[in-house]
Amino acid sequence: MSTPNQEQTVIDQLPGDLMMWILIVSELLVFGAGLAAYLGVRLTDPAGFAEAQSHLHKAAAGINTVVLVSSGWLAALAVQAAEAGRVAKTRLLLGLASVLGGVFLWIKGLEYAEKSAQGIDFETHPFFTFYYLLTGFHAVHVVAGIVILGLVAWRPTARNTEVGTAFWHMVDLVWVILFPILYLLG
Amino acid sequence: MAALVILGLAWMKAQVILRTYLGLAQAPSWSRGFALVLGLYMLGMMGLAVAA
Questions:
Q1: Which among B21, B23, B48 is the nearest to A72, CB-wise?
Q2: Distance set, CA A131 to CA A12, A37, A116, A141, B33 (Å)
Q3: Which pLDDT score, from 0 to 100, does residue B1 have?
Q4: Which residue of A has its CA nearest to B20?
């Protein structure tokens, strides 16, 4: 049995900020449960879900995956720049990561507009209920992430940058799992 | 089979984000814990994917 001192040591090993990790794990649990529910409900009507999924724009979502993964890479470079004390470079990298976040939202908006033009909404099929809930909730996190990156760029210390970009990496991580499950599993 | 490959690639990328970008490589015990939970989750997703 571990003593309180040993537990503290284990907590201390966690990189970044404990509260950010609690937030990250909470978000991962929510998205994880949503995606598991999606795959579970999909078992009740595989053909209907596959037909509904065929209306998605896989190429646009693929481009968005490249955009978000690239943005995550830039955010990781920003942490290295902040640790090296290079404030201007840190701001530039955080700014570029944010711009790519904006590109992601723009493409996502085009995707939603396309669905709307086709008369597809929340209630068209259970697939689209999950689609709008999961991608919409994720898009809200992208917006929050852009705001956080902006705040970090304002005062880019090594600590701020590590903690702020951790949220952005969580957004990236969720999309890396969400994209194949929603868009690619036929 | 394609579903397993697709989810396998997503699993690998998720591990890279956790270990490299989120820095868990510096904390081996946390890294093992996250890897175990992620692995169990992705195996569950693979099971649901191929069951459809």
A1: B21
A2: 38, 12, 13, 15, 30
A3: 83
A4: A76
Distance, CA of A23 to chain centre? 13
Cα A63 vs. chain centroid, distance in angstroms?
Answer: 15
DSSP state of B32: H
Across the interface, whether the CB atoms of A42 and B48 are under 8 A apart is answered yes
Which residues, given as ranges, of chain A have pLDDT below 70? 1-8
Interface with chain A: mutation pick from B9, B11, B13, highest number of A CBs within 10 Å = B13
pTM over 0.90: yes
Residue A15 has its nearest CB partner, among B6, B27, B45, at B27
DSSP count for chain B of H helices, then E strands: 2, 0
Within a 10 A sphere around the Cβ of A143, how many other Cβ atoms?
13
> What pLDDT, on a 0 to 100 scale, did the predictor assign at position A13?
87
Q: What is the pLDDT of residues B23-38, one digit of tens each?
A: 999 999 999 999 999 9
pLDDT digits (tens, 9 = 90+) for A120-170: 999 999 999 999 999 999 999 999 999 999 999 999 999 999 999 999 999
| Residue A85: φ, ψ to 5° | 75, 15
Indicate the residue type of A8: Q
